[in-house]
Amino acid sequence: MILMSSFILAFAQVTTAQTLILNDSDYFESRGLNVLVFSNEYNGEFFDEKTAGIELIHHEVRTATGGAVRLHHTPEQWDLIPKMINRTVDKTNKTIEVKLRYEAYDFDSRLKVTPKGKGFVISVVLDQPVPKELEGKAGFNMEFLPSSYFESNYLIDGKPGIFPRYPASNTLTKSSSQKIPQFAGHNTFDDRGRDEYIVPLPLESGKNLILAPENPERRVKIQSEDEIMLFDGRNLGQNGWYVVRSILPANKTGEVLSWYVEPNTITDWLREPVIGFSQVGYMPSQEKVAVVELDKNDQPLKTASIFQLNEEGEFVEKLKADVKPWGKYLRYNYAQLDFSSIQETGIYYIQYGDYKTNSFQIANDIYSKVWHPTMDVFFPIQMDHMEVNEAYRTWHGKPFADDCLQAPLNHKHFDGYEQGATTDTKYKPLERIPGMSVGGWFDAGDYDIQTFRHVLVIASFVESWETFGIDRDETYIDQKTQYVDIHRPDGQPDILQQIEHGVLNLVAQVENIGHPVRGIVVPNLHQYHHLGDASTETDNLSYNPSLKPYESDGLSSGTLDDRWAFTNRSSFLDYRAAGALAAASRALKGYNDELADKCINIAKRLFEEANENAKAPGHVMSRWGRGSDMIAMMQLFLTTGEEQYKKGFLDNIWKVLDESLERNIDYALLALPYMDEAYKSKLRGYVVKYKENTDKENADNPYGVPIAKRGWGGSSVAINWSITNYRILKSYPDIVDIEDVYSGLNYIFGCHPYSNLSFVNAVGNKSKKVAYGSNRADFSTIAGGVVPGLIFLKPDYLENKDDWPFFWGENECIIDGGAWYIFLANAAEELAKSNLKNK
């Protein structure tokens, strides 16, 4: 105890806690600390994404979230969340107050945050006492990110403890009748324990808590007159955080709870510069502009140096370049370093003051292999209904042989799934739909099939095949035995085999269900959060209602774990599926003629049926759906050459471009090679307008690419922007520069805010170390997956954590993003080869 106190005092001379101010962005701030008070709300669809409530950005790292009245010791994602009724910022009294409500319990609370001394006070105010059914359950929580506190200690009332690297604290079980229900009756707890649920017990409790006393960057002091408990939320879910909690007292109103919170800050602290550059490298003739991201209290240096590795194995200065200030973007200052004059191939690094980057290449062929991990590894691992092997490792056995059942009526599911008042099929609720255990990809880090994403992937793969003639063969795929072996050629182009695999499930939907469906997903929340081998998410035995749960006759079982198909019909999805299948029929011709014929026949049928449904009384096309018929007509025309589809396309294209230029410009460009000069001339005006719009939007940031300000990262936005620029460049080279194609790749390869890691797993010298895939609990990645990148937390914070994989908005790799990336990488390589040839 004496040693620990001495250890703390050793930092006293270099650390302090400074007075918080309420800034113009309506959060509390001091140097090295931001306190956000419901700048970001809980999500009404995905519930707790760990991006809401009272949050700490501590020395520019978001380390705490979820400050709110909650109903569990360690809330899981799908537990009930409070709705923010209002938020009041009182500039005069330097206070932020929010009103929260649990509608199901008619329970309101108010949180009031006020600076005090070297920290701030959080007060919980009740106008009515805690409802009886919430007594002992409602409490105030703050959650602290485990990865920020690994290898650190804590003190509670002077008693030391170690933050556990892996959860091993005590739990107990209680009767489920005492549990606060999760949303819509769902339950994350295994149904074999329906009569009980797990309750974590605190690591320690007391009235004075210090987190990481030995670490001045992470030290936080919390004091209260009421008991403070410290929990490890990972006992219930691997994505849980360390939770600090106090129970609200019963039968009291007014200020019922108060915490004093004092995060330590370091005197004159400055965030280290982030030097953004492409971890893959650059071509000799390519523009090379690094972006330096600086603390708002920091100013750019005058110059920086580029060092090159010489033949003796030593790095020597190749260029001393001017650092040009750019200005402020969101919360940081920025500068740019242009080293385009260096065109000699080799290995380099950037030296900016005391900060030296890792090395990178300048070479003629830097884009030639960057897409291989995505095609060779990521997509095979995402293949549903297949056993997937890689050398000594089996990624997953053959999953979902028990696909699938008709979803029940009027059912609100999780992850955005919902079944309406009709099935729009011939099947009754929970009736088995035959023939569905074939093809398809896992949508992302979970194991559901989302049909629209399949449509996007199929269409993108066809375009890659037709544009670049990709014939790479590094994967053995056997549809008869449903077996995949990675890094084992089988004599067939992998991209054709992947197109076939996606089409097989889409065709099965139409043939067995009657039309494309919203998606296919497990019925239970305790299955949905499954990690690891996909083949163990169900028992792979068809559901038999005549058997008891977990009883089996060897061919079927009484366990209701088979995935459900959500089948409400959408003309938007019919049109988009028709377009993808029409495109696939071209690619599959000569490879799988029978399937190719099915594709075009189904595409025509879906198109006609969608037309009829669109004419039905009361039918309203969503904003996302408008223009989808035009996409189908374009692909049907390209495949069949029939004038009716061309005419329909031309009758629609200008209208949808006027309505939403950025959303529809790509399809207008795709049709260019098949249209006349009048079409190209008319489209030119739209292309000029598109370029003007995007240039204006991208001028607000120093990277010159679109940066999405939302809760899902914008890697795909940058990729698709570059793809559009490539399509424009091919037909209107005077409007778009070749660098507008490369810029999107540079961005995802490391020239972006927050860090300089490549957002493509295992691509580039330094790339993401963790990602939200099926192996996220192992703090690992799947090579070739493209993470969403930077999420935006209001009002000014962009984040992408590489020490915590469970933020899906930052780190979950989705299949359509991977397909688009493959196209863009090949486009860049094509342009690079063309430039070399022209020289």
From TrEMBL:
GO terms for biological process: polysaccharide catabolic process. Residues 435-769 form the Glycoside hydrolase family domain. It comes from the Bacteria. It holds the Pfam family CelD_N. Keywords: Carbohydrate metabolism, Polysaccharide degradation. InterPro entries: 6-hairpin_glycosidase_sf (IPR008928), 6hp_glycosidase-like_sf (IPR012341), Cellulase_Ig-like (IPR004197), Glyco_hydro_9 (IPR001701), Ig-like_fold (IPR013783), Ig_E-set (IPR014756). Signal peptide: none annotated. Gene3D superfamilies: 1.50.10.10, Immunoglobulins. This is N-terminal ig-like domain of cellulase. Belongs to the glycosyl hydrolase 9 (cellulase E) family. CDD domains: E_set_Cellulase_N.
